[in-house]
Structure prediction request, 801 residues.
Amino acid sequence: MKTRFSLVLALIGALMMVGAVSAQDGGQLEIFSWWAGDEGPALEALIELYNEQYPDVEVINATVTGGSGVNARAVLKTRMLGGNPPDSFQVHAGQELTGTWVVAGRMEDLTFLYEENGWFEAFPADLIDQLTYEGGIYSVPVNIHRSNVMWYNPQVLADNGLEAPATWDDFFAACATLQEAGITPLVVGEAWTVNHLWESVALGVLGTEGWNGIWTGETDVTGEEMVAVWDTFGQVLECTNINDDAAGLSWQQATDQMVAGEAAFNIMGDWAAGYMTTTLGLEPGEGYGYAASPDTGGTFMWLSDSFGLPADAPNRDNTIAWLNLLGSVEGQNAFNPLKGSIPANVNAVEAAPDLYNSYLQSAAADWSSNALAGSLAHGAAANERFMGDFNQVMEIYLQSGDSSATSTAMQAVCIQAGSCGF
Amino acid sequence: MNSSKDRMIAFLMVLPSLIVIAIFVYYFIGRAVQTSTTDWGENPARPALQEDVIKDYVGLANYDTLMSEMIQSNFRVSLVNTFFLTVFFVAGCIVVGLFLAILLDQNVAGEGFFRTVFLFPMSLSFVVTGTIWRWMLQPNGGINVLPTYIGLPRIEFSWINSSEVWWQFSWTDVPQYLTTAGIAILAFIAVRYALRQNWRSASFMGAAAVIILLIFMAGLWDYIWRPLEFPDVEPTIAPKGFNAALLGIIIAAVWQMSGYTMAMFIAGIRGIPEELREAARVDGCSEFGVYRHIILPQLNPIVLSAMIILGHISLKIFDLVFAMSGPDNSRTVVPGILVYTKGFRQNSFASASAIAIIMLFLVAIIIVPYLWTQLRDDS
Prediction:
């Protein structure tokens, strides 16, 4: 009995040795993200590239599934609060990063990386501004998605003698025509896609400066302009399926309706281009059309996935090597064509234009030339507290249809969340 | 000597689980209560996820906010939803479960097979049940197109996405309803005691009813049921009533748990001696009469147990709603979902704890009287 026990002990000891040996040399690098499933291969490509350069490092790919990180963010919080941070984690650039993690003092300043790599020229200044808090830069953006895109079914538009509307007034004219023809003019899905639509409407009504002003406090959230945003939004909703089947549709199912010709337009981020091109096998420009959402031509409403360095990351050196790779032209070109997004690094597309399809090339051109506005629905413009309570503001509008009461509620939320300059 | 040593060993045997429960259940309940009285995550000037975050004591402010502020109206909707969900889920399970139990009591061939079939849904997780039923209850598929197979028009009802609210009532009237219901129940019990000439208990219950009435008349309800910040807009922005979208969730939950209720009833029925039924039949009782007068009265304790078990499941429900209508559907929101979204999405840890404590209280309202009567019966 006793010998058996010591045998077991010896075995456990041997196993631990093996573990220690395999984690030798370069050590480990744990990357935490929500990129699984369709988005998994893009991350795998990056990890492969990393392992070519650092074969000694054991990369642990920790993913928690769930679109937009709804579940991953909860797991990340328990890990960070429990003192067990990953070496690097995916986070939306902007307030989701600064408002939650940087203000809490849990991230390390990465300004030195930007200086060493000359990234001040590689990333647009407006984007770097969003990663900056009190003079420090806190993450490296790996991709860019565009939020204010209006997708349409070219066949349906041609059949009804319409063109993609440049302004909301044009859209309302098209809306009347389409409703007479028994087609849903604009299709929306579950709750967050309605918020997504709202930010495009607000950007159109307020303009780039007015939109960005909401978050600095220069635009009065109870002012006339803001009431006008809600009024226009109400008119837009009349052209949608919001009171019909919207609540049960995922964004893919909403896009499907547009592709099938049951609906004419859909306002969704440009991951929809990846879905329609790769999953549905449609040609950009032929199977589906795209334009900036009405009244937002010349503005690029962006959202971005980025990676940072937690202050107490166990393998700091490996993480810095990882972040260097992420920001480089090589890293961005390995990741983005597979993800269906454009590189945040403005030099990347020039280096290898063949990797990107016609939609992505046009988006990349806009990214380097347009005015920039951060997305609310995807974590760039406001902190997580505000985003959560904004769902409630939206609910108040959907139930009551009262623009001024809704903007009052929005102000209350701004104050509670310390957003919009409060 | 020996018996005290036995006791010592017994105590040592139980000690580890006592310690574990004390830490992981009661200590953490205490921590949640404590957190709910702080401003952790409620003060924008103090980042919620800072190490050694400063938390100030704010008393019951978080509870006040939940009950009164306009922006928290979804919490109040969630309480109303919990009420309707619990009532229909418990009633549905008991009716269906009893019906199945009586069917299987008719000495059908292959009883064991059917028992397994009915009991089987219980072995699934709520997430699986929710996903399957969500597919079947889609507006354009599954259940809704079934009638077309026999030439009937299809059903046009959105089982889990409907935005209809039936039986609407005003939130400010709820204390009145609760008081009326409380007095009615106490008066009923008092009358039953009086009929049994148990004057002491009867007057005790009568006094309790009078106290509730006095509480209502003195306006003390305002301390629990905080007056709304904007009572006029509440009905427009968050109507209270039975949200039709809950129907789908109730159907799925009843499907899952009615088999379990059936098993409880079958056990109860098997426990009734055959002699009793025979005696009733000899006395000229019809087969329906046997159930009405012999079996159902004997099943009362089972009904009570079923109500407790099912009731606490539906008060705490999270996974089924999460899987069926997602965390952002404002018509089917329940407190468990809000704890998750407020805590882990919005970093409002104090509000989330307050909601968790309110859930604990709701469950305690059901469980404690049950435990109390059980313990009293034992001793």
Chain B has a mean pLDDT of 90. The two ends of chain B are 26 Å apart (CA to CA). Chain B touches chain A at residues 41-42, 44-45, 47-51, 53, 69-74, 138-140, 158, 160-161, 163, 233, 236-239, 325-331, 340-342, 344-348 (CB under 8 Å).
